[in-house]
Amino acid sequence: MREIVLDTETTGLDPLAGHRVVEVGCLELMNMVATGRTFHAYFNPEMVMPTGAQDVHGLSDDFLADKPRFGERVEEFLEFIGDAQLVIHNAQFDIGFLNAELERVGKGKLANAHIDTVSMARKKFPGQRASLDALCERFGIDNSSRTKHGALLDSELLAEVYLELSGGRQRDLGLAPEMAARVVAGLALAAGGNIRPARPHAPSAAELAAHIAFLAKLSDPLWLKA
Questions:
Q1: Contacts of 69-72 spanning 24+ positions with Cβ under 8 A
Q2: How many CB atoms lie within 10 A of CB 180?
Q3: Is 185 a member of any domain?
Q4: Distant-in-sequence, close-in-space partners of 193: CB < 8 Å, separation ≥ 6
Q5: Inside any domain, residue 198
Q6: SS3 of 144, please?
């Protein structure tokens, strides 16, 4: 299953009020595993950056002045996401902005299925904070480099949060670590890999004494009847 973890940064909160997308970051997952493929772009919003928005993401008018317009990279963006399911934190916000940008350049609205990780978090932890920072803290995900919001960095953090919310870190299906390691070793063997032989275990004197004491408690053991 192909999924795209996606985040945007914008000039404000309402696309219907003329606010624009200034950054898009996407990260590809295949069967809940990051492939390393990403899409990342900054865009010239063709408007002055409000101070409040710049305080959030740090993207200034000077920085964005020479960046392409959204329409100049829209085909690359749409090709990257394809028909994959989108994973978005507060999906209505990002999808609303992207659809507004697509409409400006004569493209249809996004038809991709999507998962909203805010809804996932609220369902799993009712009454608890569901911000990206709060979820990183809950799951022990290092977000120390997130001094400002950034679309690609936030997508990377969100991918880890999404895996935690969906149980993606439990890939051993609840097996004990030792057994899980054996499963991995078996898969490596099937793929032609080398498996380290089992380490021999010599019982200690205490273990032998305990074993003899245990045998002495048995009456009429089955193996003596053979």
A1: 69/43, 69/44, 70/20, 70/21, 70/43, 70/101, 70/104, 70/105, 71/104, 71/105
A2: 14
A3: no
A4: none
A5: no
A6: coil
What DSSP state is assigned to residue 220? S
* Catalytic positions: 149
DSSP bridge pairs for 28: 4
Question: How many structural domains are present in the chain?
Answer: 1
For residues 102 and 78, give the distance between their C-alpha atoms in angstroms, rounded to a whole number. Answer: 10
The verdict on residue 145 lying in a domain is yes
Residue 184 lies in a domain: no
> What CATH number corresponds to the domain at position 84?
3.30.420.10
Tokens representing residue 77 in the block: 């963006």
Q: What is the 3-state secondary structure (H, E, C) of 1-52?
A: CEEEEEEEEECCCCHHHCCCEEEEEEEEEECCEEEEEEEEEECCCCCCCCHH
- Categorize the per-residue pLDDT at 52 as very low, low, confident or very high, splitting at 50, 70 and 90: very high
Q: In the prediction, which pLDDT does 224 show?
A: 55
According to the model, what pLDDT value does residue 36 have?
95
Which residues have a Cβ under 8 Å from the Cβ of 2 and sit 6 or more positions away? Answer: 28, 29, 30, 82, 84, 85
- Where in the sequence is the domain holding 18, given as residue range(s)? 2-165
pLDDT(189) > 70: no
